[in-house]
């Protein structure tokens, strides 16, 4: 994929490399991000956070023609106003929206000109899917899921989960909308919203797509748009961004 901003009918998904060695030359985080980065106890969490936040700044700074450190983000929960909501670019003004996910060996960012949500789930992390099933799956989904053979059930559960989190990240509701109030098509079928029974609004027609994130992961992207949006995906060409960043001083 060429390193140019997404066209109006495109959603770009970039996978970002994890590990301090990739990012240490980019001193672009703001004070709040630095403080949060320092607070992680586990180095794996620290590394994923660094990849996500430095990567997003480099990519969006490149697209928007500003130094990555000059970008400002805003995060307000659309329900309680606290700072855990959907992140958006506050400066400079832009039509682009983005969504970040970090899970296991994955850190990725999606960029589009419509509301977008991206989610990757690690399926082998010891999560007790039976204990979580009634909170995540709607009654209709549960009926389907409980009939799955044991060997398929775990992956199917995480298939639903990634699709639902992608959707709730696109809307910005996050966990304020109980996942079991949303019904999606079964993971063996093309992803689609079947029923939205949440008491909070769905802001537009939702498009859902699964992404192949490899063994041990499920992944999905959600877009709120009445028009078809195609998804392109690639590894972030960090060298190209680094060269531009260095030459811009
Ligand atoms: C969005 C959420 C479901 C994703 O969690 P997750 O699958 O564990 O983690 P992921 O790595 O895939 O995604 C996390 C990223 O999603 C983004 N995000 C957080 N809240 C979001 C929201 N409401 N909408 C869209 N994106 C959100 C952030 O970029 C976050 O990364 P960061 O914290 O490093 O900036 C979860 O973080 C969340 O809902 N948090 C808010 C808590 C909440 O809603 N509380 C009740 C509201 S009153």
From TrEMBL:
Domain (4'-phosphopantetheinyl transferase): residue spans on this chain:
115-197
Q: Which domain of life is it from?
A: Bacteria
The yes or no answer to whether the keyword Transferase is present is: yes
Q: Does the entry feature the keyword Transferase, yes or no?
A: yes
Question: Which keywords accompany this UniProt record?
Answer: Transferase
Q: Where is the 4'-phosphopantetheinyl transferase N-terminal domain?
A: 17-111
Q: GO molecular function terms here?
A: transferase activity
Describe the family membership recorded for this protein in Swiss-Prot or TrEMBL. Answer: Belongs to the P-Pant transferase superfamily. Gsp/Sfp/HetI/AcpT family.
Protein name from the UniProt record: 4'-phosphopantetheinyl transferase superfamily protein
Species whose genome carries this gene = Plantactinospora sonchi
